[in-house]
Model the fold of this input.
Amino acid sequence: MSVGVIERLGRRIRLGMVGGGADSIIGETHRVAFRVDGLYQLVAGALSIDPEIAAASARAELLDPERSYLDFRTMAEREAQREDGIDAVVIATPPQTHLEIAVEFLRRGIHVICEKPMTRTAQEARELVEAVEASDRLFVLTHCYTGYPMVRQAREMVRAGALGEVRLVEAEFSSGDPGVAREPEDPAQRHWRFRAASMGEAAILGEVGSHAHNIAEYVTGRRATRVAARLDTIAQRREVYDNAYLTVEYEGGAIGRLWSSYVAVGQEHGLSFRIFGDDASLEWRQEEPEVLWHRALGGPATALTRASDGLSPASLRATRFRPGHPEGYALAFANLYRDFAALIAGERDDEGLLPTAEDGLATLRLIEAATRSNDAGCRWEPLGAEAGVDG
Amino acid sequence: MSVGVIERLGRRIRLGMVGGGADSIIGETHRVAFRVDGLYQLVAGALSIDPEIAAASARAELLDPERSYLDFRTMAEREAQREDGIDAVVIATPPQTHLEIAVEFLRRGIHVICEKPMTRTAQEARELVEAVEASDRLFVLTHCYTGYPMVRQAREMVRAGALGEVRLVEAEFSSGDPGVAREPEDPAQRHWRFRAASMGEAAILGEVGSHAHNIAEYVTGRRATRVAARLDTIAQRREVYDNAYLTVEYEGGAIGRLWSSYVAVGQEHGLSFRIFGDDASLEWRQEEPEVLWHRALGGPATALTRASDGLSPASLRATRFRPGHPEGYALAFANLYRDFAALIAGERDDEGLLPTAEDGLATLRLIEAATRSNDAGCRWEPLGAEAGVDG
Amino acid sequence: MSVGVIERLGRRIRLGMVGGGADSIIGETHRVAFRVDGLYQLVAGALSIDPEIAAASARAELLDPERSYLDFRTMAEREAQREDGIDAVVIATPPQTHLEIAVEFLRRGIHVICEKPMTRTAQEARELVEAVEASDRLFVLTHCYTGYPMVRQAREMVRAGALGEVRLVEAEFSSGDPGVAREPEDPAQRHWRFRAASMGEAAILGEVGSHAHNIAEYVTGRRATRVAARLDTIAQRREVYDNAYLTVEYEGGAIGRLWSSYVAVGQEHGLSFRIFGDDASLEWRQEEPEVLWHRALGGPATALTRASDGLSPASLRATRFRPGHPEGYALAFANLYRDFAALIAGERDDEGLLPTAEDGLATLRLIEAATRSNDAGCRWEPLGAEAGVDG
Amino acid sequence: MSVGVIERLGRRIRLGMVGGGADSIIGETHRVAFRVDGLYQLVAGALSIDPEIAAASARAELLDPERSYLDFRTMAEREAQREDGIDAVVIATPPQTHLEIAVEFLRRGIHVICEKPMTRTAQEARELVEAVEASDRLFVLTHCYTGYPMVRQAREMVRAGALGEVRLVEAEFSSGDPGVAREPEDPAQRHWRFRAASMGEAAILGEVGSHAHNIAEYVTGRRATRVAARLDTIAQRREVYDNAYLTVEYEGGAIGRLWSSYVAVGQEHGLSFRIFGDDASLEWRQEEPEVLWHRALGGPATALTRASDGLSPASLRATRFRPGHPEGYALAFANLYRDFAALIAGERDDEGLLPTAEDGLATLRLIEAATRSNDAGCRWEPLGAEAGVDG
Done:
């Protein structure tokens, strides 16, 4: 695949980045991810709203100083004018800014790689979906866990009917390391994801809940349709919800649960899913991502492992090394970049492997329905359309 | 402990059994459990309502034929009259019969060891609680999983504050072997637990949900107070619920979830709990019962193992062998018998190690509140008192 | 099976015990094991050479005081004369006493259940083999781990060719809890197994190595034929070897390793095996005895679990409870008693499920060859015959 | 760290590669590894001895065609002359070629990154050690598993005395996937590692045994001093050994075992170690590299995890992501490149984190001693000096 992209283009893809400066964890994660396969070259950026951090970050990435911008609008405008301008941009800023940034680059003909949650509201998400549709550019939402080979294997097995009819969908992203389980003594030290002003009181559903929701839909191929929710604020001095229990109905009759938490003390990461059909079940935990447990009714538990014989082509294409050489998180993330590069180079995504703007909208709808349900005492709420828009 | 009982009594405890004949899985389980420590001697029984099975079962247990009874009333009456009559009786019949059998033996001065769920309704459960209180006899509800040393260790750690404030309580008993995941082609082949007429449509909550609920309350020392429930019938041709999702509030402000299922295909047993406090969490799975995972905030995961140095006295007293020699299910069950023998012999249960009639009532109240909640669209329902009774 | 024994005999098997008093861990282990299925009744004993311990132990077991003996010879003589004399005797004394005790009971027509290692020397072991053959009584060596259902499953799979040709045999019993990893400050506090005078310098090979060796031969059905050994004394102040590394050749061309250790600090038990054939491999660890890992060449790892569909009859007959209800160590040990009871009641052991005197002899030959090899600088030594006897 | 290198140099390190063309697994592995942190730029190569593969590989890497060479000597000569010539070269060819290639680049002032095993013979290894010493250039042997954060944590814990005195050292690299467990029908299809002509009959010890040996020495900080070996050829039609059992003495009195295998059927990778001291033990398995098990004498087992609080600085510096985001094999390998970049940029390796030519020599000495021991019937052989050279 990597050879294919270079051969087709005769060069690496030129990439820009908004946000994600040297002080950003997610920025460095994206950089590792797009470096892995050698298909991208970072050539431009508005890496921070702080000019000093922006400049230092640009130097560290060996950017041409004149392509280190102080605002994304200037960057979009200038890069669109250059003959060697960027092909694609990574948006690694807080979610309330994603819509306007994405729209700005899309309308100038630049592909967009966007962090999750996609936007702050379902209304914004709908607008972004429409902007993507109205452009002729590509868009990917970096739900990075969909890049794991064994997640893709699970998806293919569900599609191929290996589970029979899907009945129960258990997913959780329940973390509890000190950084999220406790509020700082000084509220001013709060990360933006713990501020109600940033993403609303239900920010947890965008931050971690979105991954659990997305992976459940990704693997089952079914959208959530109704939700009954219980949202709580548990940590002292916290102003947003930090634990969300959702019971969910899915298309086709499956039901399930989603649990998002920052106060599952002692858990390091906590993303996992279990999908139960009438013939078999699958279980996957992000902390041991090389293994997908398959348990047929009445049969033994089988540990399917990355890159091993008999896996689906979609899973095998997402691996680089032989079985037993753990690929891990960065290479899963890199798979999104590699697949996106293939699309940019003109290949087709016949399998829908990459998370879309529609997926981002689905999550925002879930968040809003969950909030309504919680406010109404756990009443079942349809996801339906976002407020004021026809679905 | 075993020496203590024999020394105090100068003999083994004389035991009778109602139900649990040779065709009964749970009957043989009880027999293994009470044989392990050599503290009991089975001397009487009404082992089956089928006279042939009753007689064959009595022969297999080498009972004196005249102490093999055809009905529990005769048995209670005659044994109460004998000088060498039974000290205690095991009730291993379906739940709708427990109340009258228990009352009959209690009022004749015979201790009662009762299978779960305790009764069919909360109203019956309340009557049984009162009958126990009115008698001077002992009663234990065989929630056998409370006999595991590492469950008791968990309970002691919560009590001692090792978790800080308990915040989240996750428990499940989600099974899916062929025997429960599928209905037989011929409805007449149904086990009584899958008949609405026997325990009502919510039988699953009594059968497996009761264990998850009981273990959550046992370990945390907190009663459930409110519930929001989603009950489903998923397997084809089934007439009772076979999946129950409960969100639960506990005394003291903790919240949690209980999941009971017969359609978690591929899971062999499926009882587990995770308890999260603000300082640490605990995790235990019945299928690996020797290990209790302790994870302190920001600390490494620690695998506490049965019988190892530093465990609580309550846990250590519940073990027989050195660490690394798995004790398993039968010996956990045997711990209930061993502890009950100590009570019969006059020791005191200062720690409340054995499940009580009040615990049984708590489960029946949960079942009824969950049913009301489900019927009302997942509305929050208080457990409160059972219908028509002051709580 | 248990019904079968009682039905055939019309009573329980009458059992005596030599050694194993109230101060003996192994004694109580045997008692739990023979109680589980209700097939035995302990009626006589020479439970300790200390008269007070013997008497207290007898009272705790509710023995008739006149059947509590002070020496095994008197016990054998008197019991053989009684009409209600014991059918079988358990020998739970140190190994250097086994030969004379076993011979005494066998010649008086009493079946023998003997602890391992069988004797102190290969010469004694040969004499015991001959005494068993010369008698018409039954003998079982309590290599208790052979009672685990998944060990028997492994054995059946090897026999049935599921692994193809057996090539590599890895087994270890490497412990390291404080009780064995460190010598007491006062040499007088030493357990007999750490005294050279008791079992020789290579006592570790009889004590724990015998289990690893036995289970390797039991599962593969192949005898060790040559050994190259490295024996070390590692713990301070210790006078016997506490670590043994053996490289072993087996009949049929397989090779492998045996590791026995008391200084594998941090390991609680440490018995495990891995058997590799040219088509597949098996792995089992005593600390998770419910699972047998099966890995076919190029296939996924499969977790075969106790009592599940598709296991061999020999494995299924060794289980009592449904899958997911861990049976553990005591019930594995109980399987030896249950199988031995069936033999006493007249059933046939067509499958050779129970460890024999020949198995005990094989271990003693290994020990002696390993000692010779170590003394000769790890030279390959044939197990051959014991000194002075034709093999 | 990555910022540091770029800041110091003001550019990326210019890298060349010998071998490792598009048809080479190890070549692509190196490329992923050096891309991850963005510190290197591949600018030259003699990527294959096949001119077409060399050219295609160079195009895929976007090399300037005039820097795609057909032989390493021309490459070394020309690159040394260019102002923008390579700083370092990766040697990814078969081992018998390493010495001459390494010497050629070293003497022209180019740093060397060399695949393992370092050379074919101990004599060659000694010459390479001397060549490195005689040059003022840097050399690293890519024993990639030393890059794992939890391997470095283990090393630091041993150094800090967390285990007490090291006593037992168990390491293995026992693989058995179809690619290595079976010979192709047609001997001409053999990989070079299965040809006696390439690395000798004991090639397995260089290929996989070298990793097990290296990691044992790396973690314990002790060199192997004597070995007793059993080498076998097990797979049909194979002409080299495919199973090696080594018992090993280490400096300071520790003993241990090394197992290298291609016929451990069903194992995917198989590298692991267990180190036992008198106070505690450590266990690590490459297939779950995020976890280092620490078991103190009499204490619970503790799962130390990558990037978590309390780890050693050497371990924490080798991580990029928060705990619970598995870093895997490629990022472990990348750590060697990152550390080597820091050395090139002028930082000091005060901790000896990178495998050296001396380490490579130690392995070759082990291989030769093991071969002598096996030929002499498992006799203990000192590693001593390589033949004809003073050690």
Summary: Chain A has a mean pLDDT of 95. Residues 226 and 382 of chain A are 4 Å apart (CA to CA). The longest strand of chain A covers residues 166-174. The interface with chain C takes residues 294, 298-305, 308-310 of chain A (CB under 8 Å).
